[in-house]
Amino acid sequence: MKPKEKAEDLIDKMYNTEHCGIEHFPNKRYCDCVEMNLYQAKQCALIALRETIWGYLDQQPKEIQKYWQEVKKEIENYGGYK
Q1: C-alpha distances in angstroms, 73 versus 4, 16, 34, 47, 67?
Q2: Is 75 helix (H, G, I), strand (E, B) or coil?
Q3: Which residues fall within 8 angstroms of residue 15, CB to CB, at 6 or more apart?
Q4: d(Cα 36, Cα 45) in Å, to the nearest integer?
Q5: From CA 82, how far away is CA 71, in angstroms rounded?
Q6: What does the alpha-carbon distance between residue 55 and residue 20 come to, in Å, rounded to a whole number?
Q7: pLDDT at 13
Q8: Which of 18, 32, 42, 54 is the 20 to 30 A CA-CA neighbour of 60?
Q9: CA-CA distance, 81 to 11, in Å (whole number)?
């Protein structure tokens, strides 16, 4: 997956909270999350990137480091869906 596609994928996963699968209450089998705006989705994607990958990035080969840095840049510059 290209960096731009990965960035869009991460943002999309954060943006669509309607069926995220989180059980907020024992009696409900759906997410009660309020729909978020694009800015919030981008911030969540950046947090996910930072929490899951960024701490280990310096231990990866240069091409992997470059890929994830480009994904981060694409998330930051993302303007919306076409």
Answers
A1: 9, 21, 27, 13, 10
A2: helix
A3: 36, 38, 41
A4: 12
A5: 18
A6: 25
A7: 84
A8: 42
A9: 10
Identify each DSSP E strand in the chain by its residue range: none
Tokens representing 8 are: 């869009």
Segment 8-13 shows an average pLDDT of 89
DSSP helix/strand/coil, 79: coil
- Residue holding tokens 């990137």? 49
DSSP 8-state code for residue 29: S
Compute the distance between CA of residue 75 and CA of residue 49 in angstroms, rounded to an integer.
10
Both structure tokens of 47: 């947090």
Between 29 and 75, name the one with better pLDDT. Answer: 75
Instruction: Write down the residue that tokens 């947090």 correspond to.
Output: 47
4: which 2 tokens?
């731009």
In sequence order, which residues have a C-beta less than 8 Å from that of residue 38 and are 6 or more positions away?
11, 15, 78, 80
Higher pLDDT, 23 or 66: 66
